[in-house]
Amino acid sequence: MSEWEQIALIDRLRALPTETEWFEFKRNRHEPQQLGEYLSALANAACLSGQPRGYLVFGIDDATHGVVGTDFDPYTVKAKGNQDLLPWLASGLRPNTGFEPHVIAHPDGRIVLFEIGPANGEPVNFYGTPYIRVGTSKTELRNHPEKARALWTRGSDWSAEACAAAALADLDPDAVAKAREQFVVKHPGQAAAVADWDNSTFLNKARVLRQGAVTNTALLLLGRPESATLLSPAVAKISWILKDANNHELDYEHFGPPFLLVGDRLLKRIRNLIVRALPSGTLFPQEIAQYDPWVIREALHNAIAHQDYRRHGRIVVVEFPDRVLVTNVGDFLPGDVETVIRQDAPQALYRNPFLADAMVELNLIDTQGGGIKRMFETQRRRWFPLPDYDLSAPALVAVSLSGRILDERYTRLLMERTDLDLGQVMLLDRVQKGQRIGRDEHHRLKSAGLVEGRYPNLIVAGAVARAAGEAGRHIRERGFNKQYYLDLILALVREHQPVDRKDVDQLLLTKLPDRLSQEQKLRKVHNLLQELRRAGLIDNRGSRSKPQWVAVEPTPAEDAP
Q1: Considering the domain 482-559, what is its CATH architecture?
Q2: Main-chain phi, psi angles of 137, to 5 degrees
Q3: In 10 A of CB 27, how many CB atoms?
Q4: Is the dihedral of CA 204, 210, 211, 214 positive or negative?
Q5: Counting Cβ atoms within 10 Å, is residue 515 exposed (0-12), middle (13-18) or buried (19+)?
Q6: Is 259 within 8 Å of 236 (Cβ atoms)?
Q7: Helix or strand or coil: residue 93?
């Protein structure tokens, strides 16, 4: 734009009644971190608003829209580490959709205008965190998952793009043969026709090629190992890492294309030992493998389908002695796992739609919404802990599959209570893992007689504990009523006064509920002592830091029958 066009643009923005989500006025503030966050937020907002640009304007009052001028110079200001501002901003934006600063001599004062390219096909992050404008406020995009999901539907599909440097000769023959087998499994009625198709026809029918062109999807799923270089700068790599209980690395292997064959190779690497569970009322244990092969494959294939290959990250499978952790780069587009399981319907959004369609045709994943739910149901039928989805880190999905029974009571409960619905099992699974549940969820479990205890420190209900042969453990976790503890303290003080806090702790700590932490137990003892003091039954003749507790003798009137 020429300078007069820039001035005209600024005046058009000033003439709008209020700021919108795709432009922002600032008087003179230019703190580097905040500036980068605004570039991310405005790029994402411009995409969602269908605008060709987002705008950040310095030198205008955001209330009156009057020109106040600015001394901000983006070409001389320094950023963190004394770096030049503009290169530092450019390095932090991923993907960088482009921004351009302009210093404008407006008739009413000096103005700095940033033009920002809109997001395209994925959110724009600033040093790992994406931002968005909601109304006139800037916030992290993760606070608005519906906007994050919508950003993935705007723009091109990387997995559908043709790789100009690739040909059919770059595809692995064994992978193509396996693809034919899987296609027939998915479409058994077409078995005879598939046998007559040449590779080009078959791969077009399987939605791996696009009008005969070799796509990024074709290279990922069927490419020869060396074809990974054709995808650069995107990264196509899966790493298996074996670690011990102390997180020390013992072994590793890296897998490249063809990803269609990685599942079998990975399962040969993962140790799958046998564990034993003893059902109630029998002396014969049930022998169960640590991991269900289908669950491992499903977690891996979901990671392949939803990996953001343009972020230059790897899919990582870490095997610990008691669990397998699968991580992939990219936000979890459905928002949360509970919604996926509750709706049990096809996902509305896919990061790589073309890749997902091809994986469906080759019988690798299920787009009918049942894949994740089936993982949970499979673990439930095996009486194992349910998968744990950790979505707390930005742009990362981590799925943990437990390879051991965490709590024998819950295992026996699942063996005996086949009437429980999956929602109840998911809540009980969180209880056994010590994860907090909501008050409404607590009420649901308690009304069904499945848990007891004072919220949020919940334990398995007594009836269930008896069925699981854990009655003694149940009493240890529940503890006794308060009067029991008060009577113990009073007896100790009367017989051995003066007593200090150490004496009281020695008496009570082992008798308090096992579910309480050491800190909670110590606080409980303090509260019991204060209750007896307020009741006039004991008194501290020492100091607050070194108490000496003695019994308070009752007056004759109090002692009278």
Answers
A1: Orthogonal Bundle (1.10)
A2: -110, 145
A3: 14
A4: negative
A5: middle
A6: yes
A7: strand
Amino acid at 479: G
Query: Are 165 and 231 spatial neighbours (Cβ–Cβ below 8 Å)?
Result: no
pTM over 0.70: no
Answer yes or no: are the C-beta atoms of 256 and 333 closer than 8 Å: no
* 3-state SS assignment for residue 42: helix
Residue 54 near residue 23, CB atoms below 8 Å:
yes
CATH of domain 238-408: 3.30.565.60
The alpha carbon of 177 is separated from its chain's Cα centroid by a whole number of angstroms, namely 36
User: In one letter, which amino acid is 30?
Assistant: H
- Where helices occur in 270-366 by DSSP H, the ranges are 293-306, 337-343, 353-361
Q: Quick one: CATH architecture of 3-155?
A: 2-Layer Sandwich (3.30)
Residue 95 DSSP SS3: coil
pLDDT digits (tens, 9 = 90+) for 16-37: 888 789 999 999 877 899 999 9
Cα separation, 6 vs 93, in Å, equals 24
* 328, β-bridge pairs: 397
User: For residue 534, what are its two tokens?
Assistant: 């307020």
In terms of Cβ atoms closer than 10 Å to its own Cβ (0-12, 13-18, 19+), residue 451 is buried
| Token representation of residue 555 | 């007056």
Residue-wise pLDDT tens digits, 369-410? 578 889 999 999 988 999 999 988 877 899 999 998 887 778
CATH 1.10.10.10 segments of the chain: 482-559
Asked if pLDDT for residue 448 goes beyond 60, the answer is yes
Residue 282 has pLDDT above 70, yes or no: no
CA 270 – CA 390 distance, rounded (Å) = 22
For the stretch 110-139, pLDDT in tens is: 999 999 999 987 899 999 899 999 988 999
Cα 141–Cα 145–Cα 151 angle in degrees, nearest 5: 75
More confident residue, 93 or 471: 93
Cα radius of gyration (the chain): 32
Residue span(s) of the chain under CATH 3.30.950 come to 3-155
Inter-residue contact 395 to 331 (CB < 8 Å)? yes
Two structure tokens written together for 394 = 């930005």
- Number of residues that this document lists for the chain: 561
